[in-house]
Structures are given as structure tokens and as C-alpha cells.
Amino acid sequence: MKVIIKKLTVLVFVLTAFSACTNRFEEINTNPNAPISVTSSLLLPQIIRDMVNATLGEAWGIGNIVIQHTAKNQFVNEDRYLWGELNSIWNNVYSNMRDLKIVLDQSEASNQRNYKGIALILKSWMFSLATDCYGDIPYSEAIRGKSDGINFPKYDTQESIYAGILADLAEANSILGTTGEIVAGDPIFNGDVTKWKKLANSLRLRYLMRISNKRNVAADMASIVNNPNANPIMTGNSDNANYTYLSNAPDQFPLFTTRIGSFNEFRASKTLMDVLTGFNDPRRNIFFRPTPATELTPDTSDDQYVGIPNGLGDVEALQFNGGPQNQSRIGALFYEAANSSLGLSIAKGVIMNYSELQFILAEAAKKGLIAGGDAQAKTYYENGINASFAYYGLSTPAGYLAQTGVAYNPANALVQIGTQKWISFFFQGLEAWFDWRRTNIPALRPAATNQTNGIIPTRFIYPLSEQSLNTQNRVEAVTRQGADAITTKVWWNK
Q: Signal peptide position in this chain (predicted)?
């Protein structure tokens, strides 16, 4: 009997203890030192840093090559268009969009319109990168798994995505500055809301021009340009939307710590080098170095700048012009001198620069999408060139704007505008690629030993994980858009 009583006593004790533990389960399993929410000011810097690093990485590995700013002399598959999966943009957009949704939700709940406006701008830029790389993508149902149980989002058409992007940028412009919260955690403009408004409207002009072959954008572009009080745009290089790296770890320019052998696989492209040399353009000496054989001699008068053709075979590329000692490398400011004072001012993560905006306006004026005609187009065009030189710490050389091939010529203006815009996009390979696909300026020749039947790639293939994780929606997108191949054109490019 005593044994039974003891067992019952133990059982009651255990049940009581278990009940007590169950009642305090959440309390016991909650770490009082671990945050359960993160403020927008802490989320923004990481989102922006991740995205500019992703765009720089894809520019270095693919964008600069396909747009023929750089070429490879070893491991030349990328240069011959033997592209496999290129998932950095896709992965970074969707992973960081989750955090950006938190910023949007928090700013909406707290009526923090400055944070919401910035988040809408970043959302627009990030989705533009993804859609311009891949075409139709998850958009309206993206990042709604936790909130709405949508784990297999549909792929929206690029046309509808661009409508959403432009609407979000217009809303950002209208709400920024209408509440008084101070924006912290802003590595681009340090909380300057006016500059974010300028970026919103400058991006609107970029994306309107991007789709200008598919719809009439004249009224929309004119409404922005003709009303600067309501729709301010960038007015100088001080408005450039750039992420500035630090001289010390852990936030240095991504290439600064690259193994030298990997860096040296990339050389100057003959395409860009020939244009710069033909114009006697001093930006050449920043973008590239003299050949190693001439760089190390004390006499700079014998320096030679030599680019290699894009897409040569492995042996031909390595042996071109007598070998690597006679092929120009990429400029030091984008590598070992990236943490110098000049390097920090140039080797940046670029979202958009003033020079690009001026070239957009020049094209728009020349095409009659905004007022001004050739006279205004010439002004915008020269502003773009001057701004590009100034970005690199240079003054536009005397006579540069007047020389043949550069001097504004109404009969050839679109080619001139596109060419100078292409030059100014150095190390912004993705944006340069997007813009070239729209204009075909300059007239690039496909890589010498290309593996795409003479077609320069026009998109990335979808991540292979989508075939198994989001099969039906991906199939619908491919059926609508065209084969999941790097030569299939996206909507605005058809």
C-alpha cells in the first residue's frame, strides 16, 4: 500500500510539474536577449549591400564580358556564351525581398512614408534587375508564403511587372517627405529624402525608356521632365545613387580580396579599347592598364594598351598578341587600389548615375519623346559625357567634344548617344547589357567562337530549382515567353 501511495505521489508531482512547465512553455523558450523584430533602419543597409554586391558580381563575371567591356584569356566559357545557371540576381532579389517586405509592412503600420517610399524604390529596382535578366518572373504573388500561404507563386508577364514598377516609383515620389521620421540606416543618401525622390523619378525615366519600343511613353516622360517641382530628377553627380565601400574589412570593394590569378583572367576587350583609343579618351587609363610588358618600365612613353577580341578559344585567347604580358589588365582602381582615396570614389556599387540620366534625356529629346529637339539633345548628350569624366575625377579634354565621332551630329545622334552611354557604363555590365539589348548600340559583333549560332545572349535561363519547386508556373511562363534559352528575347526586347 505504501508503494502504491508513493507511486501516486510521484505521478501527481510529475503531472503538476509538467503542467507548470507547459503553462510557462513560451516564457521558458523565449530568449530575452534575442530580438523578435528588426527595425527598418537595421534592415535597409543589408538589403542594399547584398543587392549592389550581387550586381557587381554578375557584372564582373558576365555583364562586362557580354557587353564587350572586358574579355577573358583563360577559362573562356562565359566569353563564348557557354552559360549555365546564373542565379545570383534571382537568389538575392527574392531572399532580400523578404526583408524589404518587413520594411514595407512596418512603415505602413507606423505611417512612416519616408521608409515606405525608399522601400518602394528598392523594390522597383530589385524586381527590374530580375525581370530584365530572366523575363517573366514571380512578382504579384512573390514573398507571400508566410502571409498568404502562396508557396508556388505565378510568373507575371514582364509587361505587368513594368506597370507595377512604374506605379510604385510614382507612389514613392508622391509620399516621400510627407511624414517627418528621420531615415536612419541609409548607406546611399544618408537619409536625404529629396535625393531619394530624385532617384525615384530618374528611375521612372530609365524604365519608361526601357519599354519605349513597346508602348508610347512620350506623355509619361514629358510629365516628369516638365514638372521638376513635383517630379525632381538628378541634377548633378552629387545625386548619384551609389553604394560607397570602405577601405577596411569587412565592407571593402568585392574584388579587393580576389585571388590575383582569378582577377587576371579578365582583360580589356578589344571592342572598348579600340573605341577609347580612337577617341584619345583618358578614361581608358582608368578602366585599363598598359600591358604588363610596358607597364613596369620607368618610361611611360612606351606604354601600350591592347585589348583582346571577345570569345576566342582557350589557346588563342591566352596567346593573343604574344601572351598575357601583352594584354591590358583591368585598372588598379577596381582591384588592389580599390581602397585608396581615388578608388573609393570610383569603385562603387552603382544603382544609377546622373550621366545615365542625361543620356536618357538626350535620346528622348532626339526621338521627340520630350521637348527640345536636337538643340536640347546636344546639351543633354554633352552633359552626360562631362558627368562621366567628372565621375572618374577627370575634366573633359579640350577638343574632345568637337572631334569627329564625338561632336553631336543630328544624322548620327542616336549612335553617338548610345556609344557614349555604353562607355559610361563601365563596370555596370548588367545595366549596359539591358540597354544594349534595347538599342543594339554600339553594333557589337558576337564573340569569335560563340556557341549560340551567332546570337549575343538576351537573358538568363531560369534557376533549375524552379523546375522542381514551381514546375507548373514555370512551364506556363516558358510557354508564353519562349524557350528557356539565353537567346530568347524578353517582352520589351521583342
A: 1-22
